[in-house]
Specification:
By secondary structure, the protein is mostly beta strands. It has 3 helices and 12 strands. It is globular and about 55 Å long.
Length: 163
């Protein structure tokens, strides 16, 4: 598990690197520490998810970095709707076994330690495998205020089971 945590920490560091940015003293800002337990957790909306999904918003996109990070847990069989991200998305699978699919391509199995890069505007879905929960960290960025994802139609049972 330590290799997994180190790998994910290095991935997050690489994704968050901002070349050419000054240090905090140069730009007049300081770090913010969000303590464990302070993050709002909510049931994933039935409008955007099928099955039991829990979303823990680590921080929203209304910040200077325009990024947002959340921890999403899908119970067995749960999944997102089809959707796209105007600036792409990175998923860091932290536990369990999941599934993901791009429109028109076969379903892929994802496991703890896998990193899924969802390119800009590629229609896809992700969720848990039928017999396993799956948790991932989702990293997105806003293209314009309030736009990190464009939700589409539900993934049908037929689509989900087409393996």
């Amino acid at each position: 598990m330590n290799k997994l945590i180190l790998s994910m920490a290095l991935t997050l560091a690489a994704l968050c690197a901002l070349p050419g940015q000054g240090d905090a003293a140069e730009i007049g800002k300081s770090q913010t520490i969000l303590r464990n337990g302070e993050f709002p957790t909510a049931k994933g909306s039935d409008q955007f998810f099928t099955g039991s999904v829990r979303v823990e918003q680590l921080y929203p996109a209304n910040n200077d970095m325009r990024s947002s990070v959340g921890v999403v847990t899908f119970e067995p069989g749960a999944r997102s709707n089809w959707h796209i991200h105007p600036v792409g998305q990175a998923l860091l699978v932290t536990s369990g076994v999941g599934l993901t699919q791009e429109w028109g391509k076969p379903i892929q199995v994802i496991r703890a330690g896998d990193v899924v890069i969802c390119p800009v505007n590629v229609k896809h879905w992700h969720g848990a495998a039928p017999n396993s929960a799956m948790t991932h960290i989702s990293i997105c960025e806003e293209k314009e205020p309030g736009k990190v994802v464009v939700w589409m139609e539900k993934v049908t049972d037929e689509q989900y089971n087409a393996r």
